[in-house]
Specification:
The structure holds 2 protein chains of 2 kinds.
Chain A (H helix, E strand, L loop, with lengths): L8 H6 L27 H15 L5 H6 L3 H9 L2
Chain B lengths: L5 E5 L4 H12 L3 E6 L2 H13 L5 E4 L5 H10 L3 E6 L14 H24 L3 E10 L12 H20 L6 E7 L5 H7 L19 H12 L10 E4 L7
Parallel strand pairs in B: 1-2, 1-4, 2-3, 4-5, 5-6, 6-7
The chains are: A mainly alpha, B alpha/beta.
Chain lengths: ~80, ~240
């Protein structure tokens, strides 16, 4: 159990507002494939890692982000880590 | 090549520093290891002793100035110094914090500068010595996420250049070695690739480097074979910067 498991999936999704600059948060859903977004890049991966490390004190491996596709899957992987 | 030379290697408990310490022993020098992990330092010293060399180690956390002073006071006079201690960071600029800046620069720049200042102050570096800084090609590139790491290594490289002229009257040589991607524990985390040196990245014509590749170049810079070299910044990157 880690700090992510204490936030809901919907709250988890809102965390990405600070990570994606060009993608409106309202256009995202838990089933969105984040790797299909125009803004997707290696910098986004680093941003996800940095954001969750700073705010939730968890270290997400790049592989976890690359191996999943949707925000829902990512939430499952991170919260169960 | 390094017969009986006392050579201090910072950050020698793992990765590039570990290999440099081992290779100094293999080249008949006396490596002095320092790092935070005493078990690893002991293990490496045993390896080097098996090769017939005479290593010693001093556990120290160079982020602490008092520990730097203790280290310096305990050292014999040096004929070589390898500034290798450092940490990698991949924080995008938007997520940088003051604490993060302080952490990276303390380890990669400030502590190294303080160490050298004290070594000079206490006259621990012999004339005709060689000082080698481990820089990084990151400081010459624009790789996303590496701003703090790259800036800290660039700062170190600039510092080395000025140091080179200040100690040149004592025939002390100062050079920087800037490696490309080398498979170590540090890089293994972020890239999720095997740290066995076999992985070939298409941007590296000669493949990723190994700690042996870097250590070989360091031994050359520590030795008298490079006696006419000072103030240089040597890129060793398997051809990465060719394109």
């Amino acid at each position: 159990m880690n700090n992510i498991s204490k936030v809901s999936r919907e709250e988890f999704l809102l965390e990405f507002e600070n990570i994606f600059d060009e993608t409106p948060i309202a256009s995202l859903s838990l089933s969105t494939n984040y790797k299909d977004l125009d803004e997707w890049s290696s910098l986004i991966v680093l941003s996800i890692i940095a954001h969750f490390e700073e705010k939730f004190s968890i270290v997400i491996a790049p592989k976890t982000i690359y191996d999943n596709e949707t925000f829902n899957e990512l939430y499952n992987s991170i919260s169960q880590a | 090549m390094l017969s009986e030379k006392n050579i201090l290697v910072t950050g020698s408990s793992s990765g590039i520093g570990r290999q440099i310490a081992i290779d100094i022993g293999l080249n008949k020098g006396n490596p002095i290891l320092t790092g935070r992990n005493i078990e690893k330092l002991e293990e490496i010293c045993k390896l080097i002793i098996q090769e017939g060399a005479h290593p010693v180690y001093h556990q120290a956390d160079l982020r602490n100035e008092n520990e730097i002073t203790d280290l310096v006071m305990s050292l014999p006079n040096l004929s070589g110094l390898v500034i290798n201690a450092g940490i990698i960071d991949y924080t995008p600029v938007k997520f940088i914090s003051k604490a993060k800046i302080d952490d990276i620069f303390l380890v990669n720049f400030t502590s190294n500068v303080i160490l050298i200042k004290k070594l000079l102050e206490y006259k621990k570096i012999n004339n005709n010595s060689s000082i080698v800084f481990i820089g990084s090609i990151s400081s010459k590139l624009g790789v996303p996420g590496t701003s703090l790491y790259a800036a800290s290594k660039a700062a170190l490289t600039s510092f080395a250049k000025v140091l080179a002229i200040e100690v040149s009257a004592k025939k002390i040589r100062v050079n920087v070695l800037s490696p490309g991607l080398v498979t170590t524990d540090l890089t293994g985390n972020i890239r999720d690739k095997k740290s066995d040196g076999s992985e070939k990245d298409k941007n590296y014509p000669l493949g990723w480097g190994t700690t042996h590749n870097v250590a070989n170049a360091v031994i050359f810079l520590l030795s008298d074979k490079s006696e006419w070299m000072t103030g240089t910044d040597i890129v060793i990157d398997g051809g990465f910067t060719l394109s």
